[in-house]
């Protein structure tokens, strides 16, 4: 789960920074000064990397056993500037708590239960 968290965090930061550049730099350049070069580059990059963010979030969510609602919230966070970082912080806090709990409570080998019909 640790490696999945690292992959998710990297993608969350990259997508979050690209979205901020797109919204705070690219859109004013496009609509005020009629220069859409930043929008063309960062918009495409954000779109493709957002899909990778979704994949890493699903992978992490599956390992951390998140609900579908939490995954949807994380997916939507990648579309609102600055919210990606809040979602990443929340996800990291949750996963680190689960990792700490798992370290304190290692699973014991399950007893083999004989099948009465076998």
Automatic annotation (TrEMBL):
One of the Pfam families matching this protein, by short name: DUF3817
The topology of this chain with respect to the membrane is: Multi-pass membrane protein
Q: Where is the DUF3817 domain?
A: 7-93
Keywords associated with the record: Cell membrane, Membrane, Transmembrane, Transmembrane helix
Q: Where in the cell is it found?
A: Cell membrane
Give the residue spans that cross the bilayer. 12-33, 39-61, 68-87
Task: State where it is primarily located.
Answer: membrane
Q: What is this protein called?
A: DUF3817 domain-containing protein
Q: What is the protein's species of origin?
A: Microlunatus spumicola
């Amino acid at each position: 789960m640790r490696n999945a968290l690292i992959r998710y965090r990297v993608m969350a930061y990259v997508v979050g920074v690209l979205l901020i550049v797109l919204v705070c730099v690219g859109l004013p350049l496009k609509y005020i000064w009629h220069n859409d070069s930043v929008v063309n580059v960062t918009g495409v990059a954000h779109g493709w990397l957002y899909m990778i963010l979704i994949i890493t979030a699903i992978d992490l969510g599956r390992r951390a056993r998140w609900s579908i609602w939490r995954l949807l919230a994380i997916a939507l966070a990648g579309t609102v500037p600055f919210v990606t970082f809040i979602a990443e912080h929340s996800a990291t806090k949750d996963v680190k708590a689960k990792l700490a709990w798992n370290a304190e409570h290692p699973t014991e080998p399950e007893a083999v239960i004989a099948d009465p019909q076998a």
